[in-house]
Amino acid sequence: DIIVVRGFRKEKFNLSNIYYIDNDNYGNAFILESIMCAKEKMDSRILLMYSDILYEKDILLRLLKRDDDIVLVVDRLHRKGEFRENKLDLIAAEKDPISYERTIIVERKNPIKKIGKRLSLDEANYEHIGISLFSQAGIKQLVKEYDLAKKKYKKGQFHEAKSFMKAGLTDILQEMLDKGCKVNSMEVYKGWIEIHT
């Protein structure tokens, strides 16, 4: 089943065989609120993808073989000089990338320790490419932590966001990491692009 959360210019999205959910509050909220517009449909394993990412099919085939509760697809941070301007979703994982000119990506457990846009160069060793996989247990945990955080953070900052309504996926994931939740990574090297225009 494919669910698309629509916001700005929602009338442009009208393909058949897709279930649409409208976020009419898109001007006042950010990514996390858009994702959670679909929380009533989050009752099984979920592949969560940002809509501005194009990727090679092999990334999804590899990801769908994983059995972790929460897995984020990450790429080595090879653009360290420019990451501040791009506001990348930075990752500090337990193990550094295998960084040679010629590399074969191996499946390995590489837990994420921190996530956010403001990690230092010394901390960050990957970037999240906007594709995640949640098992049924993992997505239930995400929704539960969202509900708890929404009650707790009615005022003020929420991790890196100015307010809870302006939070991204990275903010709620950091909240979960702080509580001891396990978030794993799947490493890729290239094979994807982010659309800006």
How does this structure look, described?
The chain is α+β, with helices and mostly antiparallel strands. The protein has 5 helices and 10 strands. The protein has helices at 31-36, 57-63, 83-86, 136-152, 169-178, and strands at 3-6, 19-22, 46-49, 53-55, 70-76, 90-93, 112-116, 126-134, 184-188, 192-194. Strands 3, 5, 6, 7, 8 and 9 form a 6-stranded mixed sheet that branches. Strands 1-2 form a two-stranded parallel ribbon. The chain has a two-stranded antiparallel sheet with strand order 4-10. Helix 4 packs across helix 5 (169-178). The longest helix is centred in the C-terminal third of the chain and has 17 residues, at 136-152. The chain is globular, with a radius of gyration of 17 Å. The protein starts with a strand and ends with a strand.
Task: Throw out a few tags for this protein.
197 residues, six-stranded mixed sheet, globular, alpha+beta, 5 helices
Write the layout of secondary structure elements.
Blueprint: E1 3-6, E2 19-22, H1 31-36, E3 46-49, E4 53-55, H2 57-63, E5 70-76, H3 83-86, E6 90-93, E7 112-116, E8 126-134, H4 136-152, H5 169-178, E9 184-188, E10 192-194
Parallel strand pairs: 1-2, 5-9
Antiparallel strand pairs: 3-8, 4-10, 5-8, 6-7, 6-8
Helix pairs in contact: 4-5
Supply the helix-strand structural class: alpha+beta
The low-pLDDT segments are none
Distance between the termini: 28 Å
Number of helices: 5
Total count of strands: 10
Percent of residues in helices comes to: 10-25%
The whole-angstrom Rg is 17 Å
Largest sheet: 6 strands, mixed
